[in-house]
């Protein structure tokens, strides 16, 4: 690990073993992890991928474009398949991960399933010609999503909150979302906020609570 700039960028993207640095281009950083050939950084690839994708900054095609050598592009594909298999083995549900998995070619999807089976059995994986420990991958991933005595379940709760924030942002403008959350938490509203909530936000809440609308929306997404 000779590139201190890379280490700082990784720290800013969630790989907190390293010093804090300014946020850099996610796709370029992931490409640099691929090119590093550093097994320790490869073990952290699932961490950086998940953090970046959850923030909406990851673009697989752009990461591929950052790589000139075909051999590096193949390594990226294998590390991505390994990461997706790891999330699946840990029972983590990411919408972007499902989309990314479907975008892989047939060979990579087979590779993903092979990695998943090995991870479930706790056996070593062969990723881009390098041996990687299943238990080590799980441990590294879990450790970066723990704070103090928190466990993975705490991370999942935080993820659910992030998902709620995102969903609310699709329905409510910032001020309306703020009032929705204040009301939900039982926080006191000013007279003006109460009037605005009753006049505007409450109507949307009623619509969201409509069972038929919810059922039809689910059907459209199937």
A few lines on this structure:
The chain is mostly helical.
Features:
13 helices, 222 residues, mainly alpha, 2 domains, 71% helix, 3% strand, elongated, single chain, two-stranded antiparallel ribbon
Overall description:
The chain is mainly alpha-helical and 222 residues long. It folds into 2 domains: 4-143, no CATH class; 172-221, no CATH class. The protein is built from 13 helices and 2 strands. It has helices spanning 4-12, 26-36, 39-43, 45-54, 60-65, 70-89, 95-103, 106-121, 134-143, 152-171, 174-184, 191-209, 211-221; strands spanning 125-127, 130-132. A two-stranded antiparallel ribbon has the order 1-2. The longest helix has 20 residues, at 70-89. The termini are far apart. Residues 16-23 have low confidence and may be disordered.
Write the layout of secondary structure elements.
Elements: H1 4-12, H2 26-36, H3 39-43, H4 45-54, H5 60-65, H6 70-89, H7 95-103, H8 106-121, E1 125-127, E2 130-132, H9 134-143, H10 152-171, H11 174-184, H12 191-209, H13 211-221
Helix pairs in contact: 2-4, 4-6, 6-8, 11-12
What is the string of SSEs from the N terminus onward?
HHHHHHHHEEHHHHH
The termini sit apart by 45 Å
Q: What's the main sheet like?
A: 2 strands, antiparallel
Percent of residues in helices: over 70%
* Overall geometric form: elongated
Our count of domains comes out at 2
| Protein structure class | mainly alpha
The radius of gyration over CA amounts to: 21 Å
Q: Give unreliable regions as ranges.
A: 16-23
SS element count, helices? 13
Quaternary state reads single chain
Number of E-state strands: 2
Q: What's the pLDDT, averaged over the residues? A: 81
């Amino acid at each position: 690990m000779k590139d201190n700039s890379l280490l700082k960028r990784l720290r800013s993207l969630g790989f907190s073993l390293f010093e804090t640095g300014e946020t850099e281009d996610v796709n370029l950083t992931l490409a640099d992890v691929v090119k590093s050939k550093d097994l320790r950084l490869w073990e952290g690839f699932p961490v950086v991928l998940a953090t970046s994708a959850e923030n909406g900054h990851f673009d697989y095609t752009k990461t591929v474009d950052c790589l000139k050598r075909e051999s590096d592009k193949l390594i990226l594909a294998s590390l991505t398949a390994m990461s997706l298999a790891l999330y699946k083995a840990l029972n983590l549900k990411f919408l972007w991960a499902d989309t990314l998995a479907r975008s892989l070619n047939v060979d990579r999807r087979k590779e993903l399933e092979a990695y998943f089976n090995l991870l479930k059995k706790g056996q070593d994986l062969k990723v881009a010609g390098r041996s990687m420990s299943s238990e080590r991958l799980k441990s590294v991933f879990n450790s970066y999503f723990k704070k103090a005595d928190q466990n993975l379940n705490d991370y999942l709760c935080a993820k659910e909150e992030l998902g709620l924030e995102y969903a609310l942002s699709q329905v409510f403008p910032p001020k309306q979302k703020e009032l929705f959350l204040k009301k939900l938490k039982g926080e006191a509203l000013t007279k003006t906020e109460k009037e605005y909530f009753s006049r505007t936000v409450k109507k949307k809440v009623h619509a969201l609570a409509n069972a038929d609308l919810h059922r039809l929306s689910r059907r459209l997404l199937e």
